[in-house]
Design brief:
289 residues; mainly alpha; 2 domains; globular; 0% strand; Hypothetical protein af1432
Length: 289
């Protein structure tokens, strides 16, 4: 049974979003690709023909495949090769994540840089997948999807609640508090709550919704604290190394429970682990530029 606070938050979000009219619907390309992937005879070449129809999505898929996190020694220049590198089992979730980001894409302005947002999201998704693989987490594809979409709620605030978006920025500036704290004061909920609401509306897997919802405080995750912790850890790394960081995460508050959740034992062990990724992390970011 949902507690009263959760119900109140969902009602607030529903009321806020209903005031802006109809939200975008999942594009036709998602339905088409999903049907193709359900057919065991579908090849990378078949998918390539469909995906190539959307140049923006195709470009982003190439960016993902060319990530140093995949360790490919030569440049991936074609969509069909990119699909092979990423894997058919991951392409559906990647495509869904990318199209959702396009659906809510916000215009650049003095207080918003969409390119920086995209690079940060990609950094978190690909790096979290790499770390998940190295830590032998069984489903690294889920980690990538959750990482890529972890800040989806920010797009919604910027695009559909822009007056509140401005208030949040002003409150952060005048009160010297984090953006997350300002969100709760201005909206009564956070960008994680917004993503959770949308994911439920679109029938996303509950563990993805949970990880995105609790990526700032993974220790209170209800379904999969390990998945939420992996996203939280990489979100923190972008600030720690100041590589691929995003303004909204300034003064990021690290959840120390991640040390035990991910099995590092001590904070020193975790720090040594993170330092071993620093060079790869920076090289990855340079490739995005």
């Amino acid at each position: 049974m949902l507690d009263t606070n959760v119900i109140d938050i969902k009602l607030k979000i529903k009321n806020q979003l209903s005031a802006v009219g109809n939200l975008p619907t999942i594009p036709h390309i998602i339905t088409e690709v999903s049907q193709m992937l359900d057919n065991e005879n579908t090849s990378a070449s078949d998918l390539c023909k469909v995906i190539s129809q959307d140049q923006s999505i195709a470009t982003k898929i190439l960016a993902v495949a060319n990530s140093p996190m995949y360790g490919i020694p030569r440049r991936v220049a074609t969509i069909d090769f990119a699909i092979v590198i990423i894997g058919l089992e991951h392409i559906r979730s990647l495509l869904l994540a990318l199209t959702m980001m396009e659906m809510f894409k916000a215009k650049n302005g003095a207080d918003w840089n969409h390119n920086n947002y995209w690079k940060h999201s990609l950094m978190v998704g690909t790096t979290a997948k790499k770390i998940a693989t190295d830590l032998r987490y069984p489903k690294s594809g889920e980690v990538f999807t959750a990482g890529l979409l972890h800040d989806l709620g920010l797009l919604v605030i910027q695009k559909y609640m822009h007056r509140d978006f401005k208030k949040i920025l002003e409150l952060v500036k005048t009160e010297d508090i984090t953006h997350l704290q300002a969100e709760k004061i201005v909206l009564g909920f956070t960008h994680g709550d917004i993503a959770e609401y949308l994911f439920e509306k679109w029938n996303f897997p509950s563990f993805i919704s949970d990880a995105v919802s609790f990526h700032h405080v993974p220790s209170i995750s209800k379904k999969n604290p390990v998945l939420a912790s992996l996203i939280h850890l990489v979100d923190y790394i972008t600030q720690k190394f100041d590589v691929g960081s995003f303004e909204w995460d300034k003064n990021y508050q690290f959840d120390n429970n991640v040390v035990d959740i991910l099995g590092f034992g001590t904070i020193d062990n975790l720090e040594k682990f993170l330092l071993s990724y620093e060079e790869l992390f920076k090289t990855h970011f340079e490739s995005l530029n």
